Amino acid sequence: MNCSLIRDLIILCVEKRCSQESIRLVEEHIGSCETCRAFFEEQKAARSSEKTVIPDFRSRINGWKASVLQSVLMLASFAVIVFGVSLEAATPRGILNGFWAFSLVVPAVGFLISLCNWNFIRAYKSRRSFSVGSFWITCGGIFLAFLWTAIHYELSVGELIQLTAELRLADILELLVAGACYFGLGLVVSIGAAVGSKVLSRRYASMLGKE
User: Which of 7-21, 70-84, 158-172 has the highest mean pLDDT?
Assistant: First the structure.
């Protein structure tokens, strides 16, 4: 058979778009024709390299998406911390002082610590272990930040007595209700930060191809 026709068939064979009869003709021809055999090997190698380039390109895209996700979450955490600190600075000194730190700054700090751990994803064996690890690191970061905040905003018993003595009963009840709301908000936000860290870290690991 003419070599030009065989080469057309070779391209179809390599792309797996021909019949078994065509494959048989190609095999018979390249068994005796060095030029067509070389052409067959070239086409086969080119096809193989195309298959490797596509997954590599996809992995780069996914890696870029993972970096963007981590960067956006870090910026969001910083924004929440700055917002919480600004609100805290605007609260009056006394019983209300410290509530914004507990409800916004502490959960955001714990979540930010977990995001720093994302840089060490290769140290984890699986996607699940990384996700669970991120959850507990977030919880640990929130707990440590909570302890530091509690120590920083601690009021002595004398200060509390002096402060409450200057207030009416209605004012004290209003402060207690506000305090319960703030601490409840802090608890809800902290739980959300821990669960969000677990879910998002799993998504991050999936983008990077972690099994």
Answer: 70-84
Q: What's the CA gap between 140 and 121, in Å, rounded?
A: 18
What does each C-alpha distance from 156 to 110, 141, 176, 190, 207 come to in angstroms? 27, 26, 17, 26, 50
Is the entire prediction scored with pTM above 0.70? no
Greatest mean pLDDT range, 38-42, 126-130, 182-186: 126-130
Tokens of 161: 């007595």
SS3 for the chain is CCHHHHHHHHHHHHCCCCCHHHHHHHHHHHCCCHHHHHHHHHHHHHHHHHHHHHHHHHHHHHHHHHHHHHHHHHHHHHHHHHHHHHHHHHCCCCCCCCHHHHHHHHHHHHHHHHHHHHHHHHHCCCHHHHHHHHHHHHHHHHHHHHHHHHHHCCCCHHHHHHHHHCCCHHHHHHHHHHHHHHHHHHHHHHHHHHHHHHHHHHHHHHHCCCC
Output the six-digit token pair for 43. 């086409």
